[in-house]
Amino acid sequence: MVKLLVVNPNSTQSMTDEIRTSVERCLGDAEETQPPVIAVTYMTGPQGSPRQIDGLESSRESCEACLPLLQDPSSQYHYRSYDGILVACFSDHPLAAAIQALPAAPLVVGLLSCSVAFSSLALGRPFSIITSNAEWVAILDEQTQKFLTTDTISRSLWRGTVSTNLQVLELHNSSNFNRIAQRIEDYNIARLGSEVVILGCAGFSGMQYKLTNMLGGKITFVDPIVLGFQTLVTNATFLATERRRCE
């Protein structure tokens, strides 16, 4: 049994529930063709974590709140209890690097890095990010450049970040859906010429199907939660299998 931990580093349980829904949909698809061999635990940021992560300061605060719980051997979330950990915040979140720096750390997957790699290398089409509040635009633009390959063609595919001008917790309010879709159509597609749009916030989780229907299949939407979890499963399963073969 491969044991995985999905960490929502903010303290909003409803966001963890949305993340769980997306992950369990992935697991349901996999279990139709093979027996369940993956156990997933979900962690919501403890007291002291911000309700939403809207920039660098709240990212730092959430890391400082979550890390002690992950390091506590008596906690059910102790990092060494797992074969892999997904940090479910769309950014180069400091918690990912903090876990990786711990002794005997498991595989750690961040949402931004795997989404950029997939969009630029696997899909190979012009891509951009849609995010929540405007503060993220400059941050994600800078962080994305860090993860792009040095290949000129891959870098030319990157078109930039667009803000919905909504706060994270406003994204799943159904009254805002048309506004989000219109923003994508006007800016990501028409202005930036994107063929792929990364849903750059965990608050968008599960929205890709409705957006695809709304926009008539004009573009491909990447849900980082789905992609990140599938990346975690593939790599953690491989590493766990190889390690046990050597024992």
UniProtKB/TrEMBL annotation:
Ranges in a coiled coil: none
MF (Gene Ontology): amino-acid racemase activity
**Lineage: superkingdom:** Eukaryota
Q: Which InterPro entries match?
A: Asp/Glu/hydantoin_racemase, Hydantoin_racemase-like, Iso_Racemase_Enz_sf
Name of one Pfam family that matches? Asp_Glu_race
Q: Please give the family membership noted in the entry.
A: Belongs to the HyuE racemase family.
Protein's name according to its UniProt entry? Uncharacterized protein
Give the species this sequence originates from. Zygotorulaspora mrakii
- Higher taxonomy: Eukaryota, Fungi, Dikarya, Ascomycota, Saccharomycotina
